[in-house]
Amino acid sequence: MALRSPTTTILPPALLILAILPILVSAQGETGGNRIDSGQCPNNTEATMVYSPFKPYFTWWHGDVQKCWVAADCLFEAAGESRKQQFAATALVMGLIPLTLKDIAWPERRLIHVTKSLNWAVEILVLALGLVPLETDNAAETKRKSRENNMIAKKAWGLGRGGVVLWIFVAFVGLVASYAGLVFMEIYSKRSALGCPFPVFVATWYVVALVPAAIHACFAMLRRRRHARRQLRRQQTGLATPTVKQGFQVDVQASPREEDAERKKKIISAVQGADEDWPVQMAWGIYYIAGTLIFTSIMAVTVVELICWVGLGFAVTGCSKILAFFLCLVFEETGKRGGEGVEERRVGQSGVAAGYAM
């Protein structure tokens, strides 16, 4: 049997690697590596692409949406380390936009008092827009609590039904315009690294809030029914009936102020649904994690673009909360004058008396 030398054994694989090396280099350029050297990027890429706010891929290419990947690769290849550090910093701030502007920035403004439970569809919409309705079962108490430390609510409660409907229309138009601004910003940015051919990730995330809101509303409805049945059984068996407020059993020895403070403390926590069962909290948690991922994935955000993103975030959140507020207000008796002040004072005095009775 003839022996093969080590050189003969190693040479064919080495020649094979040398033969396919040009192909590998070419493939690397086609799939995203070394695009500048392979001639896939525009001329003078460093001067024209590295700092190019509001210039999407179709500024340089036309007709192929997949070129958005090429544009992003060319930009990052040409960018220096300091520019990449800036992109990392703006991406960090972008990731804070959804949770901070939509929720944490105004936790107590999440509460909206209503006299009776809202229609299920309206409740879902209100929750998706960022407010949590609280039933008071008393119109005067609803008005008094809604107007506390809120100038907008004080003015709004003086409006008639037509004025409330008009404000719903205005807030809706503002919200649609804000969503359009988000779509425009994403189209004219370097888009999302999750899938740049799809330029509406951010606006879609805001709309998808209907999903955790529906879960929230379902569990809230089940909670109210569960406690109503429990209260009915206690009445039928002749046992002492505990005080039930907002569907929660509360201690009859606790003062109204303590009950409201405990309920409020749960609702204004960092994540919506803290007063509900764990699936509600999980749904909202996943929703906000997805929002952080989407906002962070917007590629190569410049400082001026970041300012626009933050401004649009405020606009969307503000219009959403105003719309939700007036959607709740349309079911209340607003615009009344005369004897309502006497009734409000009577309700307020009775609440204070109950608070000090213990």
TrEMBL record:
Keywords: Membrane, Signal, Transmembrane, Transmembrane helix. The chain crosses the membrane at residues 156-180, 200-222, 286-304, 310-331. It comes from the Eukaryota. The keyword Signal applies. Residues 1-27 form the signal peptide. This is Uncharacterized protein.
